[in-house]
Amino acid sequence: MPEGPSVKRFQLLTAPFVGQVVAKVGGSSRQRNLKDLKAMRLQDSQASGKNLFLAFGAALEAWTMGGSPSPGPVEEEPTIQGEADRGACSLTLSQEGQEDEVSQLSPKEHSVQRKQETECSVPDAADAAGGIWKWLRFHFGLFGSIRANEFSRANKANKRGDWKDPVPRLVLNFDSGGFLVFYNCRIHWCTSPAVEPASDILSPKFHRGQALAALRQPTSICYTLLDQRYFSGLGNIIKNEILYLARIHPLSQGSLLALSDLESLLDHAVQFSTDWLHKKLAGKGLHYQIYLKEKCPLGHEVMQGTFGPRDGFKRLSWWCPQCQPLQFVHRCWN
Ligand SMILES: [Zn+2]
After folding, report:
1. E-assigned strands of 233-314?
2. Which parts of this chain are annotated as the region Disordered (predicted)?
């Protein structure tokens, strides 16, 4: 699924539409609730980790650049991440079956994953036209994306040999004449954007101390890195790449690693994610060092394994046993 840098880029694509009114709602979704977006104004756009949040409010509300025009729900009812998640309700935007959690993994990872996320009932969106902002949370599948003022075109034939363009799940046409197109995503109504900048690896407010404390837990380092409570936006690609760059075995116990190693891992997490975002904004691709590779850059054979917490997601890891030896002995802290 798109990781933090991709979702941040999606957010930047939506930002110019903030302040504009939705003139038409299209897409493959048959949810009536989304049709209610028509005539509403896009009030705000935020990215947090792997989630994009768009706020909609009544078009009649004044909208001013740089100010909060309405008593947004964040101020009215501060909501912690967990509460927001529980309050989120799913509007599954598809003819189903195509975009469960499994579809958010790389094809190679499919076989080891199971659907974990359950959906709750669709909320009454009638009050979406009231004076309070309503937030939509977008969670993207493996091929999830957003396009601004263009549609995605097929770049290869599908399994049946057809050159079929991807079907948009949601199309929002604005009064300016521009439009946003959303592909392969799940959409939830929620009461607040549930933004946690302290744990967002791309946020200037990312809290290194909190992240370091998480990494020092006596658990496999590759589990901690994917824990969105501490490393929001960090996904499997970033995990594999930064563990290689920091020369740390994915199953190393955080509590057994030297502080300098953990500091180095944090530096790589932030730097790699930032560089990736800049590459995306410049239209450049990413060259993997270890992810999906058979040999590391030094020519060593790469190992592959499926690791995860006993009761959590299992994800594929790639590592070089020579560049990333497993540490069994407690190394001195400095
Ligand atoms: Zn190597």
Report:
1. 303-307
2. 96-119
